[in-house]
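Give me structure tokens for this 76-residue protein.
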Amino acid sequence: MDRMPERIDSKFRYVLLAALRAEQMMRGGRPKIDMGAKKSTRVAMEEISNDLVDWGMGPAEEELLEVEEEALEIEA
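Here you go.
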């Protein structure tokens, strides 16, 4: 790992993100960076180091919308 992006708070999160991204590529996801014939794990690490992978923490936005809609229905 050359450098860890500032928005990643720990090396453990970095490893988790790299593993998830590598799995995406092994299942057919296309790399966001051209590194030749490198392993998916190395490509994933490079993508994350270059801040090319969007990620977030917490529930997905769709889940939040469902919870808000349910709360509004209960109030009505």
